[in-house]
């Protein structure tokens, strides 16, 4: 078309727009500026998500920046993302628990979906133009993790309490995870203000911004309080700290399990990690107290499970969780006595058989915990 439109052509255009319910202003407002580049937008999203999400996705956003820093979000296609997935898998750092790069591929796609979801919400791209939503995640393989045997737990605790530059810290970490079945992030987020000494409970804040109160033994509570006092943890700061007062990070866990793998061949070959302790505790609870108690012990509150909606009506109480904990710690103490023939001083990890812990959660635990620990 050349030259200015005729009056007839303008009238025809107005008629078509009127029938479509579109105004000239709509057409002008529909012109969007180009979408930002990955280098421009990733920092924006990183400040908008929670700490857990940022920590999980940052390594993958960094890999995206290595390849696409100066490329606009609107210039990537599903095929481009699939090529990046294959590049990541081909250049993967092999770790103890590496499984053909499927986990890395899943996390990369999830990180890009998070990025593009924010871009759609910010109206930087159209929802139909979201390439990450069109790339399927790889099928998640069944986990190789399982519950550790009593013998393996004994070996694990022996290595943790006799090696490394801070056995006291590492033993406390292992005891904490064994009793609470908490995830690693829950321990790292724990603060002194999250300890309820009177009721013998800790407030766990874990993935998905979930939180819950979890019963602990008087023994563990006493050691946590001693740790806070001796290492100078501020009330609102991280609880677990090095001897010099610095808060621990994920690196402490990496070094801990690397050392365990070096000393226990089976742990190194199978890639045992903190999550195996969660499997161990929850398996024991499920076998002795049933699925409902194990589910509550784990802090699971999602409704999209194979168990169906029945879990809404059979939800375990905090008292039932405390009863399971009492039996768990009492069984561990009895097991140690039977194997070692000990009759007096027990190791710190299972020093108090908590046969009466169920009532202690109501009446307070600080006194009994301190008295029994003082005799160690």
UniProtKB/TrEMBL annotation:
<dbReference type="InterPro" id="IPR011010">
    <property type="entry name" value="DNA_brk_join_enz"/>
</dbReference>
<dbReference type="InterPro" id="IPR002104">
    <property type="entry name" value="Integrase_catalytic"/>
</dbReference>
<dbReference type="Pfam" id="PF00589">
    <property type="entry name" value="Phage_integrase"/>
</dbReference>
<feature type="region of interest" description="Disordered">
    <location>
        <begin position="127"/>
        <end position="163"/>
    </location>
</feature>
<keyword id="KW-0238">DNA-binding</keyword>
<feature type="compositionally biased region" description="Polar residues">
    <location>
        <begin position="152"/>
        <end position="163"/>
    </location>
</feature>
<feature type="domain" description="Core-binding (CB)">
    <location>
        <begin position="29"/>
        <end position="120"/>
    </location>
</feature>
<comment type="similarity">
    <text>Belongs to the 'phage' integrase family.</text>
</comment>
<dbReference type="InterPro" id="IPR010998">
    <property type="entry name" value="Integrase_recombinase_N"/>
</dbReference>
<dbReference type="InterPro" id="IPR044068">
    <property type="entry name" value="CB"/>
</dbReference>
<protein>
    <recommendedName>
        <fullName>Site-specific recombinase XerD</fullName>
    </recommendedName>
</protein>
<dbReference type="InterPro" id="IPR050090">
    <property type="entry name" value="Tyrosine_recombinase_XerCD"/>
</dbReference>
<feature type="domain" description="Tyr recombinase">
    <location>
        <begin position="143"/>
        <end position="326"/>
    </location>
</feature>
<keyword id="KW-0233">DNA recombination</keyword>
<dbReference type="InterPro" id="IPR013762">
    <property type="entry name" value="Integrase-like_cat_sf"/>
</dbReference>
């Amino acid at each position: 078309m050349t030259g200015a439109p005729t009056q007839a052509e303008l009238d025809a255009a107005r008629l078509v727009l009127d029938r479509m319910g579109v105004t000239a202003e709509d057409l002008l407002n529909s012109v969007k500026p180009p979408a930002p580049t990955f280098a421009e937008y990733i920092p924006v999203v990183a400040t908008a998500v929670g700490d857990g999400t940022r920590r999980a996705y940052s390594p993958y956003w960094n890999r995206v920046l290595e390849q696409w820093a100066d490329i606009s979000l609107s210039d990537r296609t599903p095929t481009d993302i699939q090529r990046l997935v294959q590049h990541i898998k081909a250049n993967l750092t092999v770790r103890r628990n590496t499984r053909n790069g499927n986990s890395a591929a899943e996390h990369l796609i999830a990180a890009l979906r998070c990025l593009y979801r924010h871009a759609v919400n910010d109206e930087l791209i159209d929802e139909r133009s979201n390439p990450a939503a069109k790339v399927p995640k790889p099928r998640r393989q069944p986990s190789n993790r399982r519950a550790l045997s009593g013998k393996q737990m004994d070996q694990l605790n022996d290595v943790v309490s006799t090696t490394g530059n801070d056995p006291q810290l590492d033993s406390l970490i292992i005891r904490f995870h064994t009793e609470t079945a908490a995830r690693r992030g829950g321990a790292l987020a724990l603060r002194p203000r999250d300890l309820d000494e009177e009721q013998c409970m800790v407030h766990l804040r874990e993935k998905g911004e979930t939180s819950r109160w979890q019963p602990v033994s008087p023994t563990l509570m006493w050691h946590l309080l001693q740790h806070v006092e001796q290492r100078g943890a501020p009330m609102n700061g991280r609880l677990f700290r090095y001897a010099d007062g610095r808060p621990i990070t994920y690196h402490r866990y990496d070094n801990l399990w690397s050392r365990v793998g070096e000393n226990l061949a089976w742990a190194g070959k199978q890639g045992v990690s903190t999550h195996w302790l969660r499997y161990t505790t929850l398996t024991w609870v499920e076998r002795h107290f049933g699925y409902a108690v194990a589910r509550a012990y784990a802090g699971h509150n999602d409704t999209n499970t194979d168990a169906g909606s029945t879990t809404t009506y059979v939800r375990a109480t905090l008292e039932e969780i405390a009863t399971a904990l009492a039996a768990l710690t009492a069984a561990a103490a009895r097991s140690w006595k039977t194997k070692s023939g000990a009759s007096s001083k027990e190791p710190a990890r299972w020093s108090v058989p908590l046969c009466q812990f169920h009532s202690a959660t109501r009446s307070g635990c600080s006194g009994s915990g301190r008295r029994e620990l003082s005799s160690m």
